[in-house]
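hi! just following up on the protien thing from before. the input was this:
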Amino acid sequence: MDLTFDPALRLFFPELARCESSRELEQSSLYRKLQPEIQRILQHVWQEQLVASPPPAAGPVRVIAWNIERGMRVDGIISLLREHPQLRDADVLLLSEVDWGMARTQNRRIVRDIASALGMNYAFAPCYLALSKGAGVERQAEGENAESLHGNAVLSRCPLQHAHSLALPNGKDKMKGAEKRIGSQRALIADIEHPTGMFRAVSLHLDAHSSQAHRCLQMKQVLDHLETLQPKLPVLIGGDWNTTTHDASRALYSILGYVRRVLMGVRHVVANHYPYPEKYFERRLFQNLEQRGYNYRDLNNPGECTLHYHMHDLRANLNLGEWVPQWCFSFIRWALERTGGSCSLKLDWFAGKDVARAGEAYAVPNLSHDGRPVSDHDPIVLSVRPGGM
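and the predicted 3d structure came back as:
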């Protein structure tokens, strides 16, 4: 394992965090001095082969894509991945929102802890160098950040090859607001040597604070990059694509979006648009996938939501309050009273090229450990055969 993080870099974070925008950061003489080291860290992929040989079975590949919410409940996540009948025995994990040395997750290297516990190889791509402890209640975490990294991961029981990451354009200035970060979302790509056949796995987390058009642009850049890779292999993309149906690039656009949905009818939107973003609000992203030869229709359970918002969820409201004015919450509560105080969204997806579904595709809801939810997202599970056979 190549640990290439210089702990002395943390000493400069408070001064960098004083910058109020990325433009101001880029004009800082301190940042210009540190930029080569920061970019080297963000472009690096941490990787370990913890399994000596692939499993002997040559059956379908069982894949889980899961936004694990930083790894805040990592011990519960590990327990569920070991024991839950719908989650255990996964061949590949595509994880998003994974911490590496953050105080809010006790400075654990979350992906390494999961890989070690499950006996899997892993690759971890940092997306952000965090200059603060996080957003909302995360700022109350004890201690200070260690490596201060947050990103995406691929884990596999088979060997991983050619792991690398692709930087995606930001949908929002990550230096504005309370949670200051350097970097951008990155797609993590790795070739997996499975007995059924070699295939290319992509762990992809699209921007939350972005527009529908921007998420489509991010996906396009991933697909463009995949076309350049050799050799040509079957591809499976999985992760949290943040298909909220909303333009969340600015608070004003988000507010106007809520108003539009109220005019459309809250119950109608919650029943017919949030579970099916591909039909209207996010259709360009999914049309682009199909135009490029990627199948998503057969690899997901239609209308099955993966994130569930409750208007009395204190943690979610504190995080949302970082970028939506407080007066909006009265409006949101008023709207959600028409749906029993909650709504659910389809945010997590698979898409594949030259892969065939070989079993059920489903989300696993209501996962908890010791009486507490382990993540704000439900994992999605899929069995496939590379090569479309």
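The chain has a mean pLDDT of 91.
The chain is about 30% helix and 30% strand.
cheers
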